[in-house]
Amino acid sequence: MSTLQDQFLIAMPSMRDPNFSGTVTYLCKHDEKGALGIIINRPLRMRVSEIFKQLSMNVVDELQADRPVMGGGPVQVDRGFVIHQSGEPFDNTLDATGTGIKVTVSQDILDSMARGAGPEPTLVALGYAGWDPGQLEAEITANAWLNVPADPAVIFDTPIDQRWAAATALLGVEPSQLSSYAGHA
Questions:
Q1: 121 upstream amide cis, omega within 30 of 0
Q2: Who is most buried in 52, 140, 167, 172, counting CB within 10 A?
Q3: What are the residues whose beta carbons fall under 8 Å from the beta carbon of 51, sequence distance 6 or more?
């Protein structure tokens, strides 16, 4: 099986599912059991400071606290994920591949961030996108998604509202060239 782990899934213009329309998803896990990804361009009306407050954390780093939280996907929307590139050994961290992009789901990273000792840069998300075995491959075959190797600059350096276009540009395609109609020859 060919893995799509450590790639971006770019929703095609024809995507009508409101959970994924216009999204870029970082695929942090893909194997014979299915796939798991975090949407990187769907900000919630919530700041990281609200998560710190809910966890009763003393905030020292106001820059971290003021960042928006992403809606990572429609599954387990109360579960938090931190995407980062830190070399620190946080609990429950998935190190996808060679890009250095990591996803941590444990509270120790949030505590470190609140104290001003956490990794920089970060992206915090609530929820994730999940696919059963073979489901994602079928959706790609049906022209619901484009995929391209992930680039940390799109996650960490690109303004949120420009991430879909930036991810699409990694394919050498202008967003205006993509059709909202799917077809098969």
A1: yes
A2: 167
A3: 69, 80, 110, 124
Question: Model confidence over 10-25: pLDDT tens digits?
Answer: 999 888 899 999 999 9
Fold designation for 7-177: VC0467-like (3.40.1740)
Token reading at 172:
């050498």
CA quadruple 150, 155, 161, 166: dihedral, nearest 10: -30
- Per domain, the residue ranges of the chain are 7-177
Does the reported pTM lie above 0.85? yes
Query: What is the per-residue pLDDT across 27-41, written as a single tens digit (0 to 9) for each?
Result: 999 999 999 999 999
Q: What is the DSSP letter of 146?
A: E
How far from 74 is each of 13, 37, 39, 53, 137, CA to CA, in Å? 19, 11, 10, 23, 19
